[in-house]
Amino acid sequence: MSKILRVNMTDLTAAYEDVPEKYKLMGGRWLTSSIVADEVEPTCHPLGPNNKVVLAPGIVSGTDAPSSGRISVGGKSPLTGTIKESNAGTPFSQHLARLGIKAVVVEGFPKEKGKFWLLRVDKDGAEFLPADEYVGQGLYEAYPALFDRFGKKAAIMGIGVGGEMKMAMAGVCFNDIDGRPSRYSGRGGMGAVLGSKGLKFIVTDDTGGPGVDIADKDLFNTGRKKLTEALRTHDVTKKGGALNTYGTAVLINILNEAGGLPTRNFSSGYFEGASKISGEAIAETIKQRGGAGKMGHPCHPECIIQCSNVWPYPDGTEHSSVQEYESVWAFGANCGIDDLDVTGELIRLCNDYGVDTIESGGTIAVAMEGGLAEFGDGQKAIELMHEIDKGTPLGRILGQGAAFTGRALGVIRVPGVKGQNMPAYSPRAVKGIGVTYITNPQGADHTIGYTIAPEILSVGGKADPLTPEGKAELSRNFQIATAFIDSTGYCLFIAFAILDIPEGFEGMVESCAGLLGTNWTADDVTRIGKEILKKERAFNEAAGFTKADDRPPEFMRYEPLPPHNQIWDVPDEALDSVWEF
Amino acid sequence: MSKILRVNMTDLTAAYEDVPEKYKLMGGRWLTSSIVADEVEPTCHPLGPNNKVVLAPGIVSGTDAPSSGRISVGGKSPLTGTIKESNAGTPFSQHLARLGIKAVVVEGFPKEKGKFWLLRVDKDGAEFLPADEYVGQGLYEAYPALFDRFGKKAAIMGIGVGGEMKMAMAGVCFNDIDGRPSRYSGRGGMGAVLGSKGLKFIVTDDTGGPGVDIADKDLFNTGRKKLTEALRTHDVTKKGGALNTYGTAVLINILNEAGGLPTRNFSSGYFEGASKISGEAIAETIKQRGGAGKMGHPCHPECIIQCSNVWPYPDGTEHSSVQEYESVWAFGANCGIDDLDVTGELIRLCNDYGVDTIESGGTIAVAMEGGLAEFGDGQKAIELMHEIDKGTPLGRILGQGAAFTGRALGVIRVPGVKGQNMPAYSPRAVKGIGVTYITNPQGADHTIGYTIAPEILSVGGKADPLTPEGKAELSRNFQIATAFIDSTGYCLFIAFAILDIPEGFEGMVESCAGLLGTNWTADDVTRIGKEILKKERAFNEAAGFTKADDRPPEFMRYEPLPPHNQIWDVPDEALDSVWEF
Questions:
Q1: 3-state DSSP call for residue B183?
Q2: pLDDT in tens, B172-191
Q3: How far apart are CA A396 and CA A506, in angstroms?
């Protein structure tokens, strides 16, 4: 029987609790958002004693279901003030599941200021160890040291200096399949919440753990196979398909051609240097340089999409991982930088400091607009990131994210919603994703309702990106389905396959139903997705959010975006209608 | 006939418009809040093209009514995101009124970045002059230069470097009776809004102006005399009374004895060094030092209370003005500093840079808690203020106020409401003023419902400061009456006299009714006060504010405040009931 591991940072206790009946079918985002909604006072200070961080593997995490190693991290966000869930693909998720841990709830507040702890979890229990020796270190130094200390079979959750300094762009870091500190629940500053609680690492070892109970193995296996088959068939997700061959940065050229690649702090949708930072360029350079570089790399065992990569220095030695779309875009087009060695270094710094690449890139772009550097100046961008590590006053500004930096520098063009900067798709050129950014409960986020599929990729149907028509309904449907997927433990990228291949969708549902022993159908996907969204929305309303927070940054209403020269023209009523369900 | 002067910073035009019928009876806050509510989109960016700044003298400003030279400055606040009104006593108010200007509306957005303008207004009209030569200057340098250039009869509104840099603690500066840049509409960052628009100064000369129309001179004079008599009789406001003799800092010892003097960033209500920074100490030192020091100094002609002062250096030469209660507290007790020469210097720097003393002191205290200085280190406090002038990254943090600084430094104990730091009365020890801070539409502010009168001073009745009982009603009544007073042009300090002396209250109403030709009674005071509050509240609701924003900082709910060891215990329902009218 799975347990909840409750970690109290006031008393330094870690206790296993039975899972209440109401949580028994839940996993991932469904579970983190439910626990946060049940236990966290919505108006609490995100970095005070009454916030909590909840970590939960998905429903099928820990099994051999394909691409199922996602971990959800939830709490009240210091970046947005909303409820938050951010998920990552990592062996850590599989470890928790196989250790019989349905969720870890981190609560309380350290009695001793500036003291940090490591929680060691294995089949025998959980214990606290001092983590002071790792404080101030880069995670590229700390993670290898931890693997040396705890063994190669360990999995590690950690925060970097960003989290230690309670910066709102601090993410929660997890190891990848080779132990790199490169898989992030990056968005929303949950690393800062862990920092406020003094929890620096959780190190797991699932050796000898009870493993994952599967209620109906036949149904589970039927579903698993259908989904696997769909993933192996679809052009986007198959071996040798778009994601596997070029990584997610295959989108750079595609979005640029669509005029929707946000460039130089969202002042254009077209970047003249796009081809130099494209997925094609990444793949080609990795091939040319040889050595440690890799395309088609998995973030966790059981992943069959394998969209990750390892970027080499010109001499072939390993530089960083992952040059993926949103990260390359954030430091590339959005900062006017067309050099993959620069984006690779900036991504490496984010992983090392424990901060979100999307928020970091957005922040550097706002800083550039505020006069701290010229757009395109990669060296200066790297220097600005160093300030975060050093914790200088400038670093303290940047570390709080783009909206904060914009306010410090008097920059009006800050492309955020609810305090979180927009990712790599321009709302004025791709209206559906704009509706998702603006209306979802967690601030500007692309993964939470990825309408790019039909608007740009002709996956799951086809929608004109420029028209405001029908985008509320489109976003609503994507947000509902995504809330369910975020709860399964499956990677969101299964969506490409299951949107086009009905058997894949069935497989997703059947594998979850089989594991849990339910008779779920597609209707339950919708029901559960709606339940999750409503719960998150209710938290935000109690925290003081209203329709006025479901609005775009004002400048997008009056500044036309080249090359289409479109403004934001989805009516407010349409935005509000997203929540009519 | 009065006009509205509409100043467009996009086109650099200044045009006189007839006053619409609906505004004809309005003045001060009633008028600024009404124009802002009518013309400003509540969700606009406070520093973007769609915000406006409205300046309005009060109903009786410009006449010989006693202490009637208040000017209101309104707009959407970059500090709080709410509607804002902040008023100051200055000859500038009287100039506008005597020039027949009911309000100045500053709107638009500069085409040329970094360019600043001066608007010259006299009986012949308004014209723009370049102000670039004053940019970056301290206001102690600029104001004398402007008086040299435009003559000693001028009155000046200005912003300092804080406003130029669009800092959220930037106030709007007005000259005092001797031309000092020392009278501030300090709160809420309206100086930053003017900075975003590129308007650096308005210089008026009322010579030859049409003067103020008085509809019923007899009624006006009757009222004026009654109010004058009340002010000359009441112990607080009379010549040789508490305010005149010791200045507003007479409150330091009183609040300290009540355990309600916020000390070291609101971590105590008692400051062991209080007597050294008290009004008594100020008066005594000014007397001892001789020279330029003055007690009982008026901020504008017609003021008969004269609570201001001029602080001398030890050698008797002029140092700064004004050592008043909230400023001395902010830099004194709240920073653990017990040296009036230090508070005097910090106040001088605020005046010079154009920033709010209350927000500045609160910010330094949060910075001290965040480890940038020890509490009590005056020299370091001065150095921190210098950072603001220099516009360093640290200065950019501090210049955005206490909440922003707290976030940058990871400080949880930030005693603000709606982003504005609390003034000099501790809500846990004086509950009624806490209700005012928390529920009023403009962020933590003491002047907007000064329940200190009955809670501490036994003026207008007597209320136990420590009990939560009855405080919602008390605050509501004060907020309603104050909204009216803020519209009259009278100094809020008339409240002491009119709360205790019925004829004084009648005089206030009759002087306004006489000027306007209305038959107002006490009922109209209530009616108008309610109208103003409701208008402001509606703006905020449209901007996205809810009951969740009418809540105290969380730490006050769980941290008992010495010496009474009280937490905040006014129920949320009582807070919400303030708006039940």
A1: strand
A2: 999 999 999 999 999 999 99
A3: 48
pTM value is: 0.97
Q: Is B296 helix (H, G, I), strand (E, B) or coil?
A: strand
The whole-angstrom distance between B373's CA and the closest CA on chain A is 14
Q: Count of CB atoms within 10 A of residue B275's CB?
A: 13
Exposed, middle or buried: residue A8 (CB in 10 Å: 0-12, 13-18, 19+)? middle
Instruction: Report how far apart, in Å, the C-alpha atoms of B232 and of each of A360, A441, A575 are.
Output: 62, 58, 59
Residues sharing a CB contact under 8 Å with residue A291, sequence separation 6 or more, in sequence order: A312, A315, A316, A317, A318
Nearest CA-CA partner of A394 in B396, B79, B366 = B396
Q: Are B397 and A396 an interchain contact pair (Cβ–Cβ within 8 Å)?
A: yes
Mean pLDDT for B453-471 is 97
The pLDDT-based confidence of A160 (bands split at 50, 70, 90) is very high
Report residue A362 as tokens.
């957005």
Element (H, E) at A14: strand A13-18
DSSP A262: -
Give tens-digit pLDDT for A360-372: 999 999 999 999 9
Show the domains of chain B with their CATH numbers: 3-204 (3.60.9.10), 235-500+546-577 (1.10.569.10)
Cβ-defined contact of B400 to A407 (cutoff 8 Å):
yes
Q: How many angstroms separate the CA atoms of B422 and B404, rounded?
A: 14
Segment B502-544, tens digit of pLDDT: 999 999 999 999 999 999 999 999 999 999 999 999 999 999 9
Q: Does B542 touch chain A (CB under 8 A)?
A: yes
Which member of A43, A397, A404 has the closest CB to residue B548? A43
A551 in contact with chain B, both atoms CB, cutoff 8 A: yes
Alpha carbons B188 and A5: distance in angstroms, whole number: 45
Q: Among A218, A224, A209, which residue's Cα sits nearest to residue A1? A: A209
Q: Does B371 touch chain A (CB under 8 A)?
A: no
